[in-house]
Amino acid sequence: MPETLPVDPAGTGASTDSDREARIEQLLLSGLDHYFAGKFDQAINIWTRVAFLERGHGRARAYIERARGAQAERHREHEELLHRGVTAYQSGDMHTARTLLTRAIEEGGPTDVALAFLQPFGDLQESVEYLTEKGDKRLPKLMTDSSNLGKDNQPFDAGDKRRMNNLGSRRWHTDQSFKMRPVKYSLLCARTVAKQGGETQFADMRGAYDALPGELKERITDLAIEHSLLSSRSKVGFTDATELEKARLASVHQRLVRRHPRTGRRSLYLSSHASHVVGWPLPEGLDLLYELTDRATQPQFVYTHTWQLYDAVLWDNRVTMHRARRHVPETDPRDMRRVSVLDETNTLAQPV
């Protein structure tokens, strides 16, 4: 709304000038309050209004330049924290890395930290929020919005398709297994946490594989599984898909058993995106997938993470499944942001 100032009904000009000066002084002081609170963007916005009301206002212009300089200095310090934190992590100094990255989160926000932290590990995944229109995305394209919030930062309405689609994250899954190059690492950051519930659970697919009977291990070693986002979406009620969606979401094949390239340890590669066993009758393949999922998600293989504000959890999708849990009430905001690193190749191209 444009700034309005009182009009002098008598036409003398005295009241108008006095009111204008008082209003401008009030805005200048309000800007200073934001500046000394470290809210440089808000301060600049207020002082810009003053410069608009009073062309060439000297104090407003000087304040704006000072705030911009403070912004630049904060950005430089934030970049230095990120660089030192990532360097400490890569050198194995976890305590120093945690301290520096926590400071960077508090001063610059988890978004910048997550992107900077994971970029050295490989190609970052672009967001695959298929039910969110391009202009409605809240976050950068390299960050997946795992929240229940729209662009206005308000929770989705009860019937919103995006809210319904998020229910898929409550099924045991592995990130982007429905793509030719699945996700390797994921980093999930909490910006707003639920008052009750909203945990994330992780299942250890290495331990689950180790616990399988020898006969079953031998039976599944060379199996390929078809993965499809259309299949997993249908499990939460989304049975309709446009021709464009079907083309964009074509299914892919992945190994059922994987060998970790660094440790050499084998693990199961399961997900709610897994639709059937390639070359098997559908009922028999589904029965096998259900059995393996039941085995892999027994309590002894599951870790439950209860989120605290600004927590950041990093996991390896090659050896885990995960799922979100319901939070109460579901109308409360839950702001979670994920950055992921793509695997080098499709799993079928990797040795087992």
Brief overview:
The protein has 352 residues and is α+β, with helices and mostly antiparallel strands.
* Rg from alpha-carbon coordinates: 26 Å
Count every beta strand, where a strand is a DSSP E run of 2 or more residues. 14
Shape: elongated
Mean pLDDT score: 83
Total count of helical runs of at least 4 residues: 11
> How far is the first residue's CA from the last residue's CA?
63 Å
Structural class call reads: alpha+beta
How would you write the strand order of the largest sheet? 1-14-2-11
In CATH terms, the superfamily of the largest domain is Clavaminate synthase-like
Question: According to CATH, what is the topology of the largest domain?
Answer: Double-stranded beta-helix
The run of helices and strands is HHHHHEHEEEHHEHHEEEEHEEEEE
Domains (count) = 2
Assign a percent range to the helix content: 25-40%
- Write down the CATH class of the largest domain: Alpha Beta
Fraction of residues in β-strands: 15-25%
CATH architecture of the largest domain: 4-Layer Sandwich
Largest sheet: 4 strands, antiparallel
Low-pLDDT stretches: 1-14
- Quaternary organization: single chain
